[in-house]
Amino acid sequence: AQSVTQPDIHITVSEGASLELRCNYSYGATPYLFWYVQSPGQGLQLLLKYFSGDTLVQGIKGFEAEFKRSQSSFNLRKPSVHWSDAAEYFCAVGTDKLIFGTGTRLQVFP
Amino acid sequence: SQTIHQWPATLVQPVGSPLSLECTVEGTSNPNLYWYRQAAGRGLQLLFYSVGIGQISSEVPQNLSASRPQDRQFILSSKKLLLSDSGFYLCAWSVGQETQYFGPGTRLLVL
Description:
The structure holds two protein chains of two kinds. Chain A is an all-beta fold. Chain A has strands at about 5, 10-15, 20, 25, 30-40, 45-50, 55-60, 65-70, 75-80, 85-95, 100, 105-110. In chain A, the strands form three sheets. In chain A, strands 2, 5, 6, 10, 11 and 12 form a six-stranded mixed sheet that branches. Chain A has a four-stranded antiparallel sheet with strand order 3-9-8-7, with no helix packed on it. In chain A, strands 1-4 form a two-stranded antiparallel sheet. In chain A, strand 7 and strand 8 form a beta hairpin. Chain B is an all-beta fold. Chain B has strands at about 5, 10-15, 20-25, 30-40, 45-50, 55-60, 65-70, 75-80, 85-95, 100, 105-110. In chain B, strands 2, 4, 5, 6, 9, 10 and 11 form a seven-stranded mixed sheet that branches. Chains A and B meet through strand 5 and strand 6 of A and strand 5, strand 9 and strand 10 of B.
């Protein structure tokens, strides 16, 4: 069955600290991979995507993600978190129809 | 550039009342259109998607229906709302199988 797992429901980090959000997937073939961010009461904003090619992809707001085929993972990273990064982050996989993880809520302390 | 609109932004409806949520896209032609629901503490659940006018695929059997009367208009409806229909409804568009872009959402509370 196709699925996306985000094992961390809630993560708290200090401003300036590094961040890694985990995403593992189960899919029949290599899917397209996405990370979205959602601020409270808002829609989803695309952070980055992987279709093919270089497995390390750069996104907006200083985020990057690495696709590891052998681990079926697509973890999101940021070297130094800002208070404005506090939000909910969703990993998604698929092609025309996306499967979303349940999200990771990021809290940032000053 | 492309933009996507949803309205209303917030809606409070009694149980048993009808529902109509609207989504429109500007700046692109023949987009794929999607309706998702996001319940509290959960990810997004795909409800309907459409690849063209009048072409609707339902992903989850339920109390809701969708229509696409125009190329860039997608409507989510219900004849009688249930308490369980409460949630955050998101519309999205894509060109083919490329990236999906989301609207601002409609928060629905059924009382």
